[in-house]
């Protein structure tokens, strides 16, 4: 009788429609011989999930945001984890950790923690001291008890190690594969034909502190169109800003793009944008966003703000320019500098693709799952 595969259960608080990091992780774990299930949550507007080689479930909750969402999510997840079959729990970010930790203790199962960001320093918590205090209490109670932890950047790892004395590994969010096909699938919009060849692209969450208001202010001064891929909390505000400035011909919102189609959209851009706001706390200062690697793998240079990890990324790989603030003049000068040496940056993107890989990153934590 064949031996039953060990099962890993992954928990996230999003709706799985754009969860690329855990999708890549699940595929890698399957290659290692594990059975994998991912649990997220279903929202009213959540798109249908594509078929995957792992099981994907979404919790239906009575609340979609705020304290009641996090309370209902963790309570529901806790009871789910009490009864499901699994051998290892993989908890993603602090908002899933409480339920995973309690269930792991009761069920006596291994718990692995994947911290995608410096959660207690998120911009959403900077001006909410009471809420921040609750999350910090949870982190302070649980983190020192963890044995298997990894995160997305060295700066975040160092902060956790200094604060809690726990060894934290770093697994950068590198795409699984480069974009090999140059032709655009028929169902994918041809952005260059539709909007023009010079496209500034932002992809990711449309939330505060991403510099989107600044680039919209700058776009009248630039010979480019701006394309924004993604949804988020300030999407309606940005659309109003564009309408008020009569920029609907220069700024285009395409909304949610599926993970399978996203690389084709990215590769059509001239320059990728990663303009995090320096005044939004340590979470942004220490961030090493997915989009940096996604731009790199699509072969397009990046314009970014000079955060700790982002600056080191650009200095190391020479794949774009960073600026110190969101002033229109600085944005314009940064783009002009990229254009002066455009082929140099594109070539560096291609060369860097050969030096880094997702499999190599995950090999750093392979022992966690053995």
Outline: globular
Main sheet makeup:
7 strands, parallel
SS element count, helices: 17
Return Rg in Å: 21 Å
N- to C-terminal separation?
Answer: 22 Å
Strand proportion, as a percent range, falls in 15-25%
What series of H and E elements makes up the topology?
EHEEHEHEHHEHEHEHEHEHEHHEHEHHHH
Strand order of the largest sheet: 3-2-1-4-5-6-7
Mean pLDDT: 92
Provide the CATH superfamily of the largest domain: Glycogen Phosphorylase B
Helix content percent band? 40-55%
Number of strands: 13
Low-confidence stretches: none
User: Can you identify the CATH class of the largest domain?
Assistant: Alpha Beta
CATH architecture of the largest domain: 3-Layer(aba) Sandwich
Explain what the structure shows.
- It contains 17 helices and 13 strands.
- By secondary structure, the chain is of the alpha/beta class.
- Helix 3 links the parallel strand 4 and strand 5.
- Helix 3 runs parallel beside helix 5 (129-142), helix 8 packs across helix 14 and helix 12 (290-298) packs across helix 15.
- It starts with 6 loop residues before the first strand and ends with a helix.
SSE topology sketch:
Blueprint: E1 7-11, H1 20-31, E2 35-42, E3 55-60, H2 66-83, E4 88-92, H3 94-107, E5 110-115, H4 123-126, H5 129-142, E6 148-151, H6 154-164, E7 168-170, H7 191-195, E8 199-203, H8 212-218, E9 225-229, H9 235-244, E10 251-255, H10 262-266, E11 271-274, H11 282-285, H12 290-298, E12 302-305, H13 308-317, E13 320-323, H14 328-340, H15 342-353, H16 358-362, H17 366-369
